[in-house]
Amino acid sequence: MESVDFDNMRRAMVDSQLRTSGIMTPWVIAAMGELPREDFAPDALRSTAYMDRALPLSGGRTLNPPVATALMLQAAEVTVDDKVLLVGTPGGYLASLLAMRTPNIVVGSVPSDLPSALFSLIIIDGAVEELPAHVLSVAEEGARIVTGIVERGVTRLASGIVRGGQVALRPFADTEVAILPEFATAREFVF
User: Fold this and answer.
1) Cβ atoms within 10 Å, residue 103
2) Residue 1's pLDDT is what?
3) Where are the alpha helices (DSSP H) in the chain?
4) Nearest to 146 by CA among 91, 36, 82, 72
5) pTM
6) 173: pLDDT confidence band, cut at 50, 70 and 90?
């Protein structure tokens, strides 16, 4: 069995993927350069953990590509004092990266288990076709939201500021982001 140099692969990811994609936020580069992404990949896919592609996880979840993760974190402008709601996998890669920046993180995995507290930052670790109202109901006035969105079958990263219980999400990068089925728009029958 050949050994894999994950440390070298992690450095290459930072230098050839993150930096060349405009990731300049020091804490994002440091955290992604330190946290072993391979520890969050299925055993059979550990050797591909640093490729810029999504990796399937159990339970229908996905480990998003490194560049998408870095772009989301950079756009979120996470501060140590932020109260963060991460809609994603508890103990997952993005949750672990966020924990390296702030201790104030709550992770909810599906829309029905979102807490009733108010948050200054909401990150959805995947793409949504429609942002449900109950996600906005836990956002403080002026809260930031960063998510993936699906527009005509194309995924993009988007962000916005909550004002008066509403948010206008503005795309900032076209990139591969896993679509979260629990946030899909209900399909209507059409003749």
Assistant:
1) 9
2) 42
3) 6-13, 26-34, 66-76, 93-99, 133-136
4) 72
5) 0.92
6) very high
